[in-house]
Write a structure and sequence with these properties.
This protein is an alpha/beta fold. It has one domain: Rossmann fold, CATH 3.40.50.150. It has six helices and 13 strands. The strands form three sheets. It has an eight-stranded mixed β-sheet with strand order 1-10-13-6-5-2-3-4. β3, α4 and β4 form a beta-alpha-beta unit. The termini are far apart.
Length: 224
């Protein structure tokens, strides 16, 4: 019985994998893969520098620090909520908060963008600016992209209406290629909405515009 169920599960996974989706649903995570990427870099570098654009109060910093055994990390946050973050981590010299992109950073190893790009008007310009820090890797977590047309809608956020962008995944890949980065990993991201893990709620959208789940994309610099 056990072998039969295992065989059925394997065959089902193979069927799903062969569906040819832009983002494979058989590879899915509900958390950022940043800690794993940091550990891999630590194996060949004395110190890992991370720029987390839109990292808030350090939500991704905590799992990186507590998950990595060798903590040779220099973590930089670029976000407007910096004053509170500085207070929370005032005794930790490894994390720095900036209200704008830091000019004193010559280069970083990893740039992480988590659930952010959909709020950026000129995201192509932002990516071009970020790559000037010469990162080896650029990691998108909870990216609002998939096998859909690119479009802009409005998000109702506690009474405020905010422009909200959905991206065709190939558009993102092409933009990254234009700054000499290539895609090396992609997976489904299982987001949490209204307190539970589920797809992005878009029942009021035409089917061709429904994203389903968001994604994780990892790019590396071509000349590395």
């Amino acid at each position: 019985m056990g072998c039969t169920k295992a065989l059925e599960r394997t065959n089902r996974l193979l069927e799903i994998a062969k569906e040819g989706r832009a983002i494979p649903s058989v590879v899915a995570y509900s958390r950022s893969l940043l800690p794993f990427l940091v550990v891999l870099l630590q194996e060949r570098s004395e110190r890992v520098k991370i720029l987390d654009f839109g990292g808030g109060l350090g939500f991704t910093y905590i799992p990186v620090i507590y998950g990595c055994i060798e903590q040779s990390i220099d973590y930089h946050e670029a976000k407007k909520i910096c004053e509170l973050g500085r207070h929370i981590f005032k005794n930790d010299p490894r994390i720095h908060f900036y209200t704008s992109l830091p000019k004193d950073l010559e280069r970083v190893d990893i740039i992480h963008l988590g659930s952010l790009l959909q709020y950026i008007d000129d995201y192509k310009s932002l990516i071009n600016t970020l790559t000037r820090y010469e990162p080896q890797y650029l990691l998108f977590t909870d990216l609002i992209a998939g096998d859909i047309p690119s479009y802009v809608t409005v998000q109702n956020y506690y009474g405020s209406k905010i422009p909200y962008r959905f991206f065709n995944i190939n558009e993102i890949i092409e933009v990254m290629a234009s700054v000499d980065f290539r895609l090396i990993f992609k997976s489904t991201y299982i987001g949490t909405y209204l307190g539970k893990e589920q797809e992005v709620s878009q029942n009021n959208f035409h089917e061709e515009y429904r994203l389903g789940n968001t994604c994780i994309l990892l790019f590396t610099r071509r000349n590395r």
